[in-house]
Predict the 3D structure of the following.
Amino acid sequence: MIELRINGESKSVDVPSDMPLLWVLRDVLGLTGTKFGCGIAQCGACTVHVNGDAVRSCVLPVGSIGERSITTIEAVGATAPGAAVQKAWLDLEVVQCGYCQSGQIMSASALLRTMPHPNDADIDAAMAGNICRCGTYARIREAIKKAAQAG
Amino acid sequence: MTNTAIGRPKSGVDPRLTRRAFLGAGLGVGGALLVGFHVPAAGAAAAGKGPFAPNAFIRIDRNGAITLIMPQVEMGQGVYTSVAMILAEELDAAFEQVTLEHAPPNDKLYGNPVFGIQVTGNSNSIRAFWMPLRKAAAQARDLLVQAASRVWKVDPSGIRTESSTAIHEASGKRLAYAALIDHVDGLTPSKNPPLKDPKDFKLIGKPLKRLDTPDKVVGKAVYGIDVMPPGVKFATIAACPVFGGKVGKVDDSKAKTVPGVRQVLVLDEFVAVVGDHMWAAKQGLGALDITWNEGSNAAISSADVWKQARAASEQEGAVAKIVGDAAKALTQGEVHEAVYELPFLAHATMEPLNCTVHVTPTSCEVWVGIQVLSRAQAVAAKVTGLPLDKVTVHNHLIGGGFGRRLETDFVEKAVLVAKQVDGPVKVVWTREEDIQHDIYRPVYLDRLSASVADGRIVGWKHRITGSSIIARWLPPAFQKGIDIDAIDCAADVPYDIANLRVEYVRAEPPAVPTGFWRGVGPNNNVFAIESFIDELARKSQKDPVAFRRDLLGNAPRLKAALDVAAEKAGWGSPLPPRTGRGVAVQTAFGSFIATVAQVHVDERGGVRVQRIISAVDTGIVVNPDTVIAQLQGGLVFGVTAALYGKIDIENGRVRQSNFHDYRMLRINEMPQIEVHLIKSGEAPGGIGETGTTAAPPALANALFAATGIRLRRLPVDREVLSGRRPA
């Protein structure tokens, strides 16, 4: 059994230790807000926070996490940057199909945690790992700036 | 509006609804698509204690809930909101009382009036349902007014409606719609109830917040891939890497030792591993030792595909359009010729293909996100051998369609797997499988020739060579050798040309399956035509905007859009070295769009798209912010394809496999995008695909302006742009 701390709760899961966190979240715990996109850390759809940092859960072996705390899209709204980002996303109507947006929001909120007032280059650096096939990037950038102002 | 129904479709729509013939549509003769849509003449009022369901789209319950039975699926284009707005507008329903329910599979009731079957595609949700839904809602409203007139014993002309309430102005009496539904028995709706004058629209034209967004920002939205029926198992599949190949021998001894693997299924054309979770299925698949029977396509490469397409393009094609005498006109003036080529493309929707199925001896239940719901049901019935009414299909939010989910191959494969699994199974494709077993945007080759005299085009010949998707996907529409999609925007070129001939050569590529891809036929034709027009302008030593303007006398809406785009882009103002602007115009999907792209090219051929300005006249706009968002996103989709999009075939298989080698535009490469909406009172046009069509030619023309190098093939070749390799 592997013990995990997810969204403030303790969970025990009986899975192989090399199993990526993504599939534990989705297929074992039913936390389907975190999305599968590529499986090789190229698209960012699976982004979660581990101790507040943005991490691609599709390549993170669940056995390597230890006692570090995991936050997913379902609970990121309980953090100040997460709530500000979600609100900005709604205010600026960022979302189209929405499939990548869990990952976008997780990357953006991790950015604001360590860098409350990012400039364009900071946003590029933090967000370039997140693909949006619908092409919502311009609104993502604006929403991050708006969330930063709100913070 | 509450959106509890969104993403959680309910099945079991009142079966009485399905008995009411609501619309009839079909293909007309001559390959033209015929719009036919009939609201039933007879009043279909609620009987007993049932809800009020005057037609297949509307249900009003006694608790006041107004349900739109939603014929179109949400894949990011905002239809859940915009279609609901249309309905609420004519019904005078309180928008917050309207909930959505996915329509069940039923072509008769919910078929797209343009296709005759349930299709969300061709950028036509608003165009196709604009009048039918308004009419349906107006008839429902008319019945409710009649009911109020009956209750109050007053003339209906003194009754107005607002916010789901009938109001008798003279007496001040008010009754909610919910209170009126017991009084509609025996009433006959007016055949042609008056529709609102657009100046009285209260919802249409307002930038309303999308109803599907709140769930999407908190991870609660349910896409097909998120469905978890109790006891569900997980499977992933591998088809023969070579197109058309089959499974030979499979050694599953190692796979069966992978923790969590439950079953290994060897089918004719693919293998599947079923497990307790996707990881087990994926690990199990990787542990299989498979020998494929690669079949006859194992030696095919992109070079063969192009060789064949080029040879085909030398033949005369089926004639799509003739005006005047192009052959004669092409002997006069200065003749210019060019050939343009576009590659295979994968869709790469962010949500990988998936489908969840539960087969029992007497039933089949399918959970999926799909653009063709009734076809999903039909294919599941075929594979299981069950009658249609034993197959339930639940449609879901789609994490990107772009045409990929106009196909049912992934449903078919999932049902084949589910037939051998006890209980429900979710079949999820890996990204590699998704890229390598797509149904690809075909390669196209366009031969254009034109003669120009005094800045006018005298003669024009355009021969389009490519796969016919229509012939496979909607066979009755393929007539006299013409694919109506492949010639879209070419046969009806917006320019004033006295002598014109447009031909189509159907050339199916060897081995590679082809399908619709966002922007469809217009993508190819607008790229070829707008690149060629640019070449003609340059040859004539005319400014590309002025050259186009002079030829758009018969297209005033497009000309107006061109003027707006040119002005907003600062057309003609000086730019730094190796920086250029390019323009492209199009009348596609019923919308008139002009686009100016500005690019910078560095010495090594690196391209930076700096700015894109689009001006669009799309008629009456239902939800302006959605229209702007679709343009913004569509332009990014088109820029991505132009800069990076290419699927190569080597040894009968696809070379690319994931986002590292099938690249997407990322935020750090994002141009500044401006969209200008032109006010219009015309009927709504389509918008979802227009930006995708607009961007590549504007970009190619800008690259020429920046470098003097004309790219006639996409994607952009940096070797050519740097001068290291000739064009």
User: Anything to note?
Assistant: Chain A touches chain B through 58 residues (CB under 8 Å).
